[in-house]
Amino acid sequence: MAAAMPLALFVLQLLGPGGWCLAEPQRDSLREELVITPLPSGDVAATFQFRTRWDSELQREGDTDHYFLRYAVLPREVVCTENLTPWKKLLPCSSKAGLSVLLKADRLFHTSYHSQAVHIRPVCRNARCTSISWELRQTLSVVFDAFITGQGKKDWSLFRMFSRTLTEPCPLASESRVYVDITNYNQDNETLEVNPPPTTTYQDVILGTRKTYAIYDLLDTATINNSRNLNIQLKWKRPAENEFPPVPFLHAQRYVSGYGLQKGELSTLLYNTHPYRAFPVLLLDTVPWYLRLYVHTLTITSKGKDNKPSYIHYQPAQDRLQPHLLEMLIQLPANSVTKVSIQFERALLKWTEYTPDPNHGFYVSPSVLSALVPSMVAAKPVDWEESPLFNSLFPVSDGSNYFVRLYTEPLLVNLPTPDFSMPYNVICLTCTVVAVCYGSFYNLLTRTFHIEEPRTGGLAKRLANLIRRIRGVPLL
Amino acid sequence: MGLLSDPVRRRALARLVLRLNAPLCVLSYLAGIAWFLALAFPPLTQRTYMSENAMGSTMVEEQFAGGDRARAFARDFAAHRRKSGALPVAWLERTMRSVGLEVYTQSFSRKLPFPDETHERYMVSGTNVYGILRAPRAASTESLVLTVPCGSDSTNSQAVGLLLALAAHFRGQIYWAKDIIFLVTEYDLLGTEAWLEAYHDVNVTGMQSSPLQGRAGAIQAAVALELSSDMVTSLDVAVEGLNGQLPNLDLLNLFQTFCQKGGLLCTLQGKPQDWTSLDGPLQGLQMLLLMVLRQASGRPHGSHGLFLRYRVEALTLRGINSFRQYKYDLVAVGKALEGMFRKLNHLLERLHQSFFLYLLPALSRFVSIGLYMPAAGFLLLVLGLKALELWMQLHEAGVGLEEPRGSPGPSAQGVGLASLVAPLLISQAMGLALYVLPVLGQHVAAQHFPVAEAEAVVLTLLAIYAAGLALPHNTHRVVSTQAPDRGWMALKLVALIYLALQLGCIALTNFSLGFLLAATMVPTAALAKPHGSRTLYAALLVLTSPAATLFGSLFLWRELQEAPLSLAEGWQLFLAALAQGVLEHHTYGALLFPLLSLGLYPCWLLFWNVLFWK
Q: Per the UniProt record, which residue ranges are transmembrane (chain B) (predicted)?
């Protein structure tokens, strides 16, 4: 459905030190983990996380000044092996050992979803934050399409997904684990079977629901020694009954409405499917300047009624300098669809400003939705250093809410585009000729002409008369 | 320009225009018609060629082999449809989901302005089903559409079967860069219109429909499929869309490429054609006329026609099963479609390289706009020449050519514009009545006369049309008696310019319509004057009125289709065409009806006025 995250977000996060890292962090450590989650649709999501931390003598100077915060999006990046190879080289073991042997490009790019990120941030080494470490966290998420690869079955194994198995941990890693979501396993042993059977499990509340994970620790020699390689397999014993996957509480959709090349409308649909809780959503839109937004046409309606946002920040665009920035805090009523729409006019660019392939259209970056979504199960705030890395993807603000950031789909908008070809030149030339002709025709049509008899003759006549006078002949 | 600014030479030119006006007009008209007829012959027609780089060479290998699957789907679909009597929505949803699509439905309802007797529809409510194949690792910014319109009769089952089999095959492929929407619409074009309006979140025609739950970005191209048999002898392609819009020629070229590659017999206007044969160009002329008639009608010839408004290049493929010996099964059709979709998938930009305005004398030949416009230009030149003549005669105050130097009298300046206001207003009001009253007054008419609503609309239409002729033509009493000719000349001058402007604008957007109307209306418009044998002129004028043009076009159309009409059939068809024209304006936004009733009919009435000027 919607809620598709942008394909590649290379995020450079410069966050504040945060209050949780009071304990002395380990020096120069590497933690790596792979989380495999079967999705309700039958597909399988695999998320890799690698965290490298090293000490540095670079000192931080106070807190991040918000004045210097910038937000930028590149809506048109398509991820390919060119992005993966340098990303892999940042790993301490590269792709030689540990979990990263699974990162085989031809399999990773045979998936239906791919997201790759780099996060870097400073971490305080002590309570007063006199010295810091730097943390580099690399994440890679892929979703394997069970429909294509599994011929409709939901079973999977590491080998089938990555065409590799795990053999040894990265020698530099202090922690190297594979987590497999077996939530249904514990409720009912009949549903699925994991092979090899997990020795330990881990329970946590992820996105408001309780999840159980089987843990395979690569540093634990017993895990691998049995057969010299680890090929985790999961088999569903019974086909799942629910044909319709559960709908998340918050999802969104964005589209351009209208037709023609003059005007249009940007519409964002925000769905709150929670049966009884309303919650606020922060909507952030950046729209390029060449879509001239009419802010007075901004309408927000939920359940047929006007929905007044409690906070609006609008920064108008400047031509060729900065895009429109629109930020709103909107309360989404329970079980409702909220439509945010704003009209725009398509600007005519200068002819040098068109991108190559201008008829492809121009991209408009996705809206960003940030929300605290009410959770079904109360979650306890956890100790970030001790809990698995993937928890950092799902921050919990307090027990009853969890934080979600959604990116809607980017949009492709056609601008009025001249035909950059020979007929275009012909049209330009013709228009010029027509304009010139029109001018003189108009001139002729609006003028009256009278014949004026010449009072004196021309030079020739005068000359002739002069000669005639000399000859004594009557003048002309 | 010296030619015009020099009074002496200007006068000479004026005299030339005045003296040679009639021969020049005749010459220009004949040149226009001759040019048009010559369009079907080689120097003016060119071979089509692919302009778009991304679709250039045929480097895709079609692997579709789901013929049995398609037939099984088609059988199931037909059985379910017979059982439920409507589109089997639940079955379609289930099947689309089982082949791995994201499935949504859309319900719509529409109350037509009056009952549609051709399709037997009045209050329509239906459901569209569509499934989206999401391209892997793409962000759903672009999409392609394969649509099958399902009417009320049980045709098109094989098309649905092929659509589902293709969806199943496409789902297993990794190479898609654009999402593909598989759309099955109910009530054929009405469903398509409802879906398109909801997809673009606009309401053009007053359709009530539920909002769409799933979208897939900007639609780049669409193919509509109509198949009613397991085997086909040929594939016919329809390009003419709403208001005479045409898809980019490259889309047609693409189709033709895969026809050739797969060895399929592909036709245009339902007629196979062999350009290389001796009478190839003559066949071309027949095809050209057929295309002109179809384009001039301004109605969508297939559900692709509605996509064109949204700048989505689209065409309709129709499987035809005739008594030919060579037949192709669904696999051949499926392979052609697979090839087309894979090529469209390669598109980087929207289709824009090739022609948007063209005429097709054959599937592989086209006439570009630069070559066909002179035909319309020559016809309109007649109006220009006549207007010029009238203008000069008026300007020189009827003094005539004998005294070109005489200064225009004071009466010449007052051309009597005031006298023009009444006829202009009256004819425009008639046009407005023609546009508004039939649909508004259908219930009143149906109450007072023993006719159904649809008939009432058509009959009111004809009644108002005829009433326009009987209007008072003596509204010009204010005209001074000293220049009796001035009044009608001024009126004719205005009417000529009005007609030339209208026809010029129409010819630019829909050449076929503009040319047809010009070819019929121009000669009598040029001839109309209140002297001479009025009955002859009146008969001519009636014969070339827009309604008579429509009537004649129907006969020409059937004649070219080699299915001639009898007069009674023709009259029935004419009435049906009138009703369809009004309906299509209200349901799809076709512009032919308002154009004729608000623009050309009042203009034609002005000439009628001129003819009966007292």
A: 20-41, 355-383, 415-436, 456-472, 493-516, 536-557, 564-583, 589-612
Q: Which of A363, A339, A340, A369 is nearest to A287 (CA)?
A: A363
Centroid of chain to Cα B319: 22
CB B311, CB A414: distance < 8 Å: yes
**From CA A291, how far away is CA A264, in angstroms rounded?**
9
Determine the Cα–Cα distance for residues B6 and B25; give it in Å rounded to an integer.
25
Q: Between B100, B142, B215, which is nearest A147 by CB?
A: B100
The DSSP code for A450 is: -
Backbone angles phi, psi at B593, to 5 degrees: -65, -55
The pair phi, psi for residue A430, each rounded to 5°, is -60, -45
Is the omega angle on the peptide bond into residue A366 within 30 degrees of 0, that is, cis? no
- Contact map slice: A 73-112 vs B, CB within 8 A: 75, 78-79, 109-112
Which H helix or E strand runs over B319? strand B313-320
Phi and psi at A214, nearest 5°, equal -85, 135
Burial zone of B563 (CB within 10 Å; 0-12 exposed, 13-18 middle, 19+ buried): exposed
Question: B190: closest CA among B143, B120, B124, B248?
Answer: B124
The SS3 call for residue A181 is strand
Token digits for A254? 């964005």
Characterize B522-537 residue by residue with b for buried, 16 or more Cβ atoms within 10 angstroms of its Cβ, and e for exposed: bbbbbbbbbeeeeeeb
Kindly state the tokens that stand for B192: 């398509």
Helix (H) or strand (E) holding B157: helix B157-171
- C-alpha B596/C-alpha B466 separation (Å) is 14
pLDDT digits (tens, 9 = 90+) for A228-263: 788 888 887 766 555 567 788 899 999 999 998 999
Give the strand pairing for A362-364 and A411-413.
antiparallel
Which residue among B97, B138, B349 places its CB closest to the CB of A360?
A: B349
**Where in B210-257 does DSSP place strands (E)?**
218-226, 231-232, 234-238
Partner A, chain B 204-233, Cβ-Cβ below 8 Å: 214-215, 217-218
Chain Cα centroid distance, residue A378: 30
Q: Is B134 on the interface with A (CB under 8 A)?
A: yes
- Can you list the alpha helix ranges (DSSP code H) found in A207-351? 221-225
SS3 B135: coil
CB atoms within 10 A of CB B353: 18
Enter the DSSP assignment of B271.
B
**Strand A29-38's sheet: what is its strand order?**
A113-124, A132-144, A44-55, A29-38, A175-181, A209-217, A200-206
List the Cα angle A358/A361/A367 in 5-degree steps: 140
ipTM: 0.86
pTM above 0.90, yes or no: no
CA torsion sign, B576 to B579 to B582 to B586?
Answer: negative
pLDDT in tens, B9-58: 777 888 888 888 899 999 999 999 999 999 988 888 889 998 888 887 66
Q: What is the largest CA-CA distance in chain B?
A: 90
Distance CA B284, CA B281 (A): 5
For residues A36 and A156, give the distance between their C-alpha atoms in angstroms, rounded to a whole number: 10
- Encoded amino acid at A141, one letter: S
Mapped onto helix, strand or coil, the DSSP state of residue A424 is helix
Tokens of B41: 């012959």
Domains of chain B: 53-363 (3.40.630.10), 417-612 (no CATH)
Is the pLDDT at A64 greater than 70? The verdict is: no
A450 in B contact zone (CB under 8 Å): yes
- C-alpha B76: how far from chain center: 36
How many Å apart are CA A13 and CA A123, to the nearest integer?
12
Distance (Å, whole) CA B531 – CA B537: 9
Phi then psi for residue B407, to 5 deg, are: -70, 140
Cα B337 from Cα B144, distance rounded (Å): 12
